[in-house]
Amino acid sequence: MFRYLILVALVPAIVFGVEFNKCSKGPAPLSLSVVGCDSQPCNLVRGKNTEFQFLFEVLSDVDELRTTVFATVFGLTTEYPLPSEFSNVCEHIGTDKCPLEKGEQITVSLSIPVLEFYPLISLNIEISLVEKNNTSIVHSCFNLDAKVVEPEP
Ligand SMILES: *[C@@H]1O[C@H](CO)[C@@H](O)[C@H](O)[C@H]1NC(C)=O
Ligand SMILES: *[C@@H]1O[C@H](CO)[C@@H](O)[C@H](O)[C@H]1NC(C)=O
């Protein structure tokens, strides 16, 4: 019975989750799914948004969290600028509202635009949730390998 329950609990993670890498700083999310991707490298389709959904646990009481995205290409890391409506985590957590309390488990739905003119390259993208006041306080972070591809004809 117990074994059966565990199996049932694991199946959604395999179907909807993607393996990700931990960051050097900040705890990993509890789970992550990327629409259209079940293993790395994830395809980032030009002209489309890539949809991420992840569950994380709030590290400490906080008024507002921001999303930061860093892309590493050929060993060179640069910040991927997100418009503020994408980067304000409080607007991407459904009906929950900031401020957030320590220990809360929050699901974030994040949509990252992949612009038409991006070069067709392989890269690593690292996504962090940081405090607005102090970006060195990281509540959650993961990274994955990805590649920019053309849409299927
Ligand atoms: C963030 O900064 C504001 C303004 O400096 C301050 O009032 C607030 O207490 C800070 N919040 C945290 C969680 O440190
Ligand atoms: C940000 O947080 C770190 C870690 O808690 C702390 O060492 C640092 O002094 C803080 N920086 C600011 C500007 O508050």
Number of domains: 1
The name of the CATH topology is Immunoglobulin-like
Please count the beta strands (DSSP E, at least 2 residues each).
8
Q: Structural class from helices and strands?
A: mainly beta
**Pattern of helices and strands:** HEEEEEHEEE
> End-to-end span in angstroms?
48 Å
Signal peptide: 1-17
Domain MD-2-related lipid-recognition: 20-146
Family: Belongs to the NPC2 family.
Protein name: Putative ml domain salivary peptide
Short description:
The chain is built from two helices and eight strands; from the N terminus they run H-E-E-E-E-E-H-E-E-E. By secondary structure, the chain is mainly β.
Describe the model.
Belongs to the NPC2 family. Pfam families: E1_DerP2_DerF2. Residues 1-17 form the signal peptide. The model is unreliable at 4-15 (pLDDT under 50). A five-stranded mixed sheet has the order 2-8-7-4-5, with no helix packed on it. It is mainly beta. Helices cover 12% and strands 40% of the residues. Strand 7 (122-131) and strand 8 form a beta hairpin. The protein has one domain (21-149): Immunoglobulin-like (Sandwich). The protein has helices at residues 2-16, 84-87; strands spanning 31-34, 42-45, 49-57, 65-73, 76-79, 105-113, 122-131, 138-149. The N and C termini lie far apart (48 Å). It is globular and about 45 Å long. The chain contains two helices and eight strands, in the order αβββββαβββ. Bound molecules: 2-acetamido-2-deoxy-beta-D-glucopyranose (2 copies). Residues 62-63, 133 line the site of one 2-acetamido-2-deoxy-beta-D-glucopyranose.
